[in-house]
């Protein structure tokens, strides 16, 4: 029983830590592994261009994005350089 509770505590701790990473301020950099769960990866050139136009100049240097969608709009946007989202690659919160 103790192991089961410990596993739950570890899982809850991981979820809390991941949520804290997601709620970092705009401009903060973190690893893809910390933010990728629950977000959609966008690397199609037309979709990437649409995101760049929506976000503005701050998104112009990024080749792909992780986006969260809520109520038909982007709730958060993270940009990465390159189109391969390795877990260790750095990403920046843009919106």
Number of domains: 1
Order of helices and strands: HEHEHEEE
What is the CATH class?
Answer: Alpha Beta
**Major sheet summary line:** 5 strands, antiparallel
The percentage helix is 25-40%
Please, how many helices? 3
* Mean pLDDT score: 80
Shape designation: globular
Cα Rg: 15 Å
> Count of DSSP E strands?
5
Instruction: Please tell me the CATH architecture by its name.
Output: Roll
Share in β-strands: 25-35%
Low-confidence stretches: 1-20
How far the N terminus sits from the C terminus, by CA atoms, comes to 42 Å
Biggest β-sheet: strands ordered side by side in the sheet: 1-5-4-3-2
Structural class: alpha+beta
CATH topology type: Nuclear Transport Factor 2, Chain: A
Question: Could you characterize what this model shows?
Answer:
The chain has helices at residues 2-22, 32-35, 45-55, and strands at residues 29-31, 40-42, 64-70, 73-80, 90-93. The chain has 95 residues and is α+β, with helices and mostly antiparallel strands. It has one domain: Roll (Nuclear Transport Factor 2, Chain: A), CATH 3.10.450. Strands 1-5-4-3-2 form a five-stranded antiparallel beta sheet. The relative contact order is 0.20.
Q: What brief labels describe this structure?
A:
95 residues; disordered N terminus; Nuclear Transport Factor 2, Chain: A; alpha+beta; single chain; 38% helix; globular; 5 strands; five-stranded antiparallel beta sheet
Quick overview of this protein structure:
The protein is α+β, with helices and mostly antiparallel strands and 95 residues long. It contains three helices and five strands; from the N terminus they run H-E-H-E-H-E-E-E.
């Amino acid at each position: 029983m103790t192991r089961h509770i410990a596993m739950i505590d570890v899982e809850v701790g991981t979820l809390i830590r991941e949520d804290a990473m997601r709620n970092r301020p705009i401009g903060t950099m973190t690893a893809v592994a910390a933010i990728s769960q629950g977000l959609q990866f966008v690397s199609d050139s037309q979709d990437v261009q649409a995101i760049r136009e929506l976000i503005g100049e701050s998104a112009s240097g990024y080749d792909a994005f992780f986006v969260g969608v809520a109520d038909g709009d982007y709730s958060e946007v993270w940009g990465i350089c390159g189109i391969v989202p390795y877990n260790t690659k750095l990403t920046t919160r843009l919106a």
